[in-house]
Description:
The complex is a heterotetramer, with two copies of chain A and two copies of chain C.
Chain A: E1 3-12, H1 16-29, H2 36-57, E2 65-73, E3 77-84, H3 92-96, H4 110-116, E4 120-126, E5 130-138, H5 142-146
Antiparallel strand pairs in A: 1-2, 2-3, 3-5, 4-5
Helix pairs in contact in A: 1-2, 2-4
Chain C: E1 2-8, E2 11-17, H1 22-36, E3 43-50, H2 56-71, E4 76-79, H3 83-91, H4 94-97, E5 100-101, H5 104-109
Parallel strand pairs in C: 2-3, 3-4, 4-5
Antiparallel strand pairs in C: 1-2
The complex binds adenosine-5'-diphosphate (2 copies).
Amino acid sequence: MNLRNYAKFEFFSIPENIAFARSCVGSFAAQLDCTLEDIEEIKLVVSEAVSNCIIHGYENNPTQMITVMVSIDTASVLEIVVEDRGKGIEDLPRAMEAAYSTDPTRMGLGFTFMKSFTDDMQVDTAPGQGTTVRLRRSFLKNEEALA
Amino acid sequence: MNLRNYAKFEFFSIPENIAFARSCVGSFAAQLDCTLEDIEEIKLVVSEAVSNCIIHGYENNPTQMITVMVSIDTASVLEIVVEDRGKGIEDLPRAMEAAYSTDPTRMGLGFTFMKSFTDDMQVDTAPGQGTTVRLRRSFLKNEEALA
Amino acid sequence: MSLEFKKIRATLIVRVAGEMDMLIADKMRTEIDKRIDDKTIRNLVLNLERVPFIDSSGLGVVIGRYKRITAKQGRMFIVGARPQVEKILFFSGVNRLVPMYKNEQEVINI
Amino acid sequence: MSLEFKKIRATLIVRVAGEMDMLIADKMRTEIDKRIDDKTIRNLVLNLERVPFIDSSGLGVVIGRYKRITAKQGRMFIVGARPQVEKILFFSGVNRLVPMYKNEQEVINI
Ligand SMILES: Nc1ncnc2c1ncn2[C@@H]1O[C@H](COP(=O)(O)OP(=O)(O)O)[C@@H](O)[C@H]1O
Ligand SMILES: Nc1ncnc2c1ncn2[C@@H]1O[C@H](COP(=O)(O)OP(=O)(O)O)[C@@H](O)[C@H]1O
């Protein structure tokens, strides 16, 4: 599938950059024919994915880098890839369960939100290697789909 | 000088990304203790620098990449670096003159705005190699400066 | 993010302004707990009128305060949640634990 | 970006909504010129009330229309510029060529 637009950004793994990342992706997604509610949901999934890199992937080490890639293809699919080179996930099926968290102070809803507000979620991870979360959401309008 | 925050982003050289770039840098700069007017001025200089990459650097070729780096150091200096690997500038002193443009339909005010709304502008360019514009603006408050 | 506190007898009203994410979670937790640990406080009203965004880290702050308040036999309410925040509160089931109202007056009237 | 047109005798009013940068410059130029090239139009009023941002590409559109209008002995006005847009119009000296007013009514009254 051909790309209509693509952007990649890398930034320090500090909590200030969660709002930065969601606002960047939100502004990128605004090119799509979508509602403010869509944008809010996209910001939510970005917030969850980037928070996870900071808290779990890098265990709050502020000197690491997080990478976010966003693209829109010619079929109006928005793809968001969030990547850290941190700790990785030991038990991925377990981690993706709703309400499961390795941190007792957290809700365990990050992956649930990411899954619920996108059409497709893929997680690539290996202990000690880092984690890549790939989220896709289609904005193809019905008329376009029939054309 | 140590960095308090740093982000780098790369994106397609298409006009849609001018608004994207200024909104990203604006949201990054919002971490500083600054006014909405400061943010508006920062967005303006980013808009000028990125437009130049698209129009002049890449002569509207949409398949090229533009890089923007932003950082805030411990002395509250915001640095914005905008870079293309395009055509480069033959006569830089001339190009920086107010109202000078190689394109008769344009105003020749881009560099003037970038210089006027920052504390420091440096341009690195070579014909056929591309252009790097480095803009710095200090947000050190007077109290901090005296401390 | 900013917090404004108001005490009405045994009830603490907290008016939050700003996006509720991980960046502000710690500060919010500390600031609120400092006040609800006070013996004269039993109930908590969280006013979210000026909260344009909440994610699971923000929800964690809400649930955490709920546990603390119920542990001391008090009651907690949320008022003024905007549609996008309300959606997340419903989606996560927080509304089944913490009753939600339009504004502070509605809670005071009950 | 969207444009709304209104014709009052020999005057064309253009109400712009959106950020005026390079992305929209071409479209704005074409859409406006198509209408001011009409023989019955002499004057142009650019309403910038709903323009939150302008850069030098946007200024280029303004100046270009000014040249076209004066070439046909007409007059051009800008109305409703917000402070941040007004600043750029002053900074670049556009205000010395194109008189600026608060709103459409002020221009109609002159
Ligand atoms: N980027 C990551 N790096 C390492 N571990 C992660 C990452 N993302 C998620 N995890 C693991 O998956 C678990 C579930 O994640 P999530 O559903 O987002 O809930 P929460 O963040 O509240 O713990 C986390 O507790 C953590 O152990
Ligand atoms: N990134 C760039 N690559 C190549 N040439 C550039 C670049 N930026 C500026 N220039 C040259 O410098 C000139 C002046 O730039 P500027 O002051 O921004 O005015 P304008 O964009 O209106 O021409 C341009 O006309 C162009 O020839």
